[in-house]
Design a protein that fits this description.
435 residues; alpha+beta; Hypothetical protein af1432; four-stranded mixed β-sheet; 22 helices; 52% helix; 10% strand
Length: 435
């Protein structure tokens, strides 16, 4: 414990308290401070301009909720050892340590999950690892196991990663607040007050069921209305495209005007493993800097994608239903785009999303901590969709799916090539563009 408690003034949680020296020391590391330079919502701020909060503030928020969870369960006579308490708080604080710039857009390019990089940052030669191992030999490995869901006590894992955890509770509150939407307004205090532990797993008193219903519906709405907003997805596809183009040019031997060594180390690493030291050099500002430099490159695709990233020139979206006819039409449009001189690999992109409010069937194939269970008044335990008419009504229907085609309307509208009319006509007729 520290001689004097430290506090962070937070827009969502009020004051976030830090009493443990290890937590304070971890916050001061260069690996954790890097999270200040990575936006929590990736490209979503292109649709909700105030959603510019960072992974740093979210990580502190998850730590704060985990701390409240432990405190609340301790009042209910759930005993955490000192090691379990600190493991939970440290894992909550560090759970997003491995996120790259623009979050999932970056992750898709390096073909490695942020959880894996989080584990590597915790386990390899970093300030984070030094602090954890100085506290207790083997402590870093235990924290990594919680992140990777291999820790032997699933109760600890479920507080950080489950269908109702500290991570999701914070990001719904925080993302709703900073995007100015009402979907994230959930009663976290009520949920935490009804949390109990029975037979080594988290359950919730049935009296808190309606707050959990609101939570599940809020998360569902936040995904469709905020996280998967077509403008946000368009921006992320542009980021992905720019990074893909850099990789393609590197492999082809293209001579960049600027020093591209950092990208070489990231996209063409020796022995196929990206060094953690290289990965940690990337944040949002680095990608934006390189995009500004790519404006001077000769490659037209790279230059255009960089300009789209910097100046919000998004691709236009069309919703469609996949079938044989659609696939045939897409192939025709690809050919016509090439006739116009537009590369369909970068400018005709399909995006598929599916979400359910609650993974009702998850408990049949996943560990028990993935389901949400209620403690009934007679002492029995029941899975929430067996009790809640609201959740039962939702999970009994079909999952919502969206198929979106993105294309460069601006390039087509301003192209002097007369073949552009054929592409626009195909989009109008085959995908009902403009309807």
């Amino acid at each position: 414990m520290m001689y004097e408690e430290k506090v962070f003034k937070d827009a969502v949680h009020g004051y976030i308290h830090v009493e443990d020296r290890i937590i304070w020391d971890l916050i001061q590391t260069r690996e954790f401070q890097r999270l200040r330079r990575i936006k929590q919502l990736g490209g979503t701020y292109m649709a909700f301009h105030t959603g510019e909060h960072s992974r740093f503030s979210h990580s502190l928020g998850v730590y704060s909720i985990a701390r409240k969870m432990i405190h609340g369960l301790s009042r209910e006579k759930v005993v955490f050892t000192e090691e379990e308490r600190l493991l939970t708080l440290v894992a909550a604080l560090l759970h997003d340590l491995g996120h790259g710039p623009f979050s999932h857009a970056f992750e898709s390019i390096i073909d490695e999950s942020h959880e894996v990089f989080t584990s590597r940052i915790i386990m390899e030669d970093t300030e984070i690892n030094l602090i954890l191992e100085n506290y207790q030999l083997g402590f870093a490995k235990k924290v990594s196991e919680i992140i990777m869901k291999t820790y032997p006590n699933p109760l600890i894992i479920s507080l950080i990663s489950s269908q109702l955890d500290a991570d999701r509770l914070d990001y719904l509150l925080r993302d709703g607040y900073f995007t100015g939407t009402s979907y994230g307004e959930i009663d976290v205090k009520r949920i935490l007050r009804t949390m109990r532990v029975v037979n080594g797993k988290i359950v919730y008193k049935v009296s808190g069921m309606h707050a959990i219903e609101d939570y599940l519906l809020s998360r569902y709405q936040m995904y469709w209305q905020v996280y998967l907003h077509p403008s946000a997805r368009s921006f992320e596809l542009i980021v992905q495209g720019m990074l893909r183009r850099v990789a393609e040019l590197l492999h082809s031997g293209y001579k960049f005007k600027i020093n591209i060594e950092l990208f070489k180390q990231l996209l063409t690493p020796n022995q196929g493993l990206i060094p953690v030291s290289v990965y940690l050099k990337f944040d949002d500002s680095v990608i934006i800097y390189y995009a500004s430099q790519f404006l001077e490159e000769k490659d037209c695709i790279l230059k255009d994608l960089a300009d789209r990233l910097l100046n919000r020139r998004l691709l236009k979206e069309i919703y469609y239903r996949p079938n044989r006819e659609t696939a045939k039409n897409l192939e025709e449009i690809k050919r016509e785009l090439e006739n116009v001189g537009i590369n369909p690999d970068y400018y005709l992109l399909t995006d598929y999303q599916i979400k359910v409010p609650y993974d009702y069937y998850g408990h049949r194939k996943k560990p028990f901590f993935e389901q949400i269970e209620l403690l009934m008044r007679d002492g029995s335990i029941r899975e929430i969709s067996e009790v809640s008419d609201v959740i039962q009504g939702i999970v009994s229907g079909k999952p919502k799916r969206e198929y979106i085609l993105y294309f460069p309307r601006d390039l087509l509208m301003h192209s002097p090539n007369p073949a552009r009319q054929k592409v626009l006509q195909l989009l109008q007729e085959k995908f009902k563009y403009g309807s």
